[in-house]
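Hey L., structure's done. Input below.
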Amino acid sequence: MTEHRLTGEVGSLDPPAKIVKLGLRQIAEAAKVSLATVSRVANGSTRVDPKLQKRVREAASGLGINLSSRNKSKVLVFLLSNRDMLHPFHSRILIGAEARCAARGWDMLFLAYRYSPNAAWKELHLPQVVHRHDMVRAVILAGTNTHNLLELLSHQGIPFVALGNNVAPKDGCDEQFDAVFSDDIQGAREMTVYLQQLGHEEIWFVGNLSLPWATRCYQGYRQAMEGAGLSPHLSDIDSADDVEVGYLGTKSLLSRSLPVTAILGATDEAAQGIYRALTERGLQIPDDVSVAGCNDNLGGLLSPPLTTIREFPDLLGKRMVDLVLDRITHPDLPPREITIPTELIKRGSCAPLRIRAEQQPVAVAGIHARSPEREDWGWAEPLSDGSTGGGPRE
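Output:
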């Protein structure tokens, strides 16, 4: 079947307006919708019901007409949600995404956006430029996101791809979407196994499990602990400051004289706070306590250099662009996921456990750690799943 391209990709001239209108009328008749509806779909308008959009695209495909080529705009939006604009990890994702856009002849617009995770999707208000489909073709979602934003984009027919690690799961929701993941679950599992191979059994996880990436890392850590017949230990601090999470989480577990020989932080920034808390107690890294992190944002800058899970944010950004451009070209493809492996980086913050008669796993007594935003005392407590939780939760 001959393909009719509405933008005249053969040669350098656009087809006459009469030919374009004829193509749209054929689509309208096949889809049993108005000519105006077909025109809106061809121009990427969000004012058309998604079911009607699908019917129009299927009718166009059946006629061999490429509707997506009608919109000549080649701009993507990089939407950083609910995160610091200078966050190093997301900055590197942006660098990778922009490089891929440039290589494929597209431009990228950066926008910061904050919204409530508890609001209904109908109550959210996207930046106005995102609604300009004559300018913006799709959205790359970075930062911290929840399903209400994904529902809004889906209902408005805006193509998007998300950093899967940073989308908070929703109970009872199995809706799929285009996403790129860093395999931090496997990375945390490998790091925990490495610590076990060094002889450590009293390994703690310090993080903020209200954040989706920390929950994923804890999942990998827990799998490795239970796989070795060991009890997982969690010190959970609800704070947006990763360094504070590491610092308060470590002080909390040490304050109860709980045994610990190694600590895995949910991020490198959390590990920085762990370093500070251990140093304040006069503990040496790695002689007294081994420390590991996740993401390799600043592991090489700490002293001693941090053993960590290296992720590849530049590559994440590039693959997100690839996925969303495929979505623009083939809007009816099923949702797809890409997972990027991680790498275990061994540095000077971890060492084999030294077993001596006079040396037991570190257990430091002291004053209970307290969250600056609460008056109650916070410490590690057993969780219903058998692991040990700890730290104040705001």
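The radius of gyration is 26 Å. The first helix runs from residue 17 to 31.

-- N.
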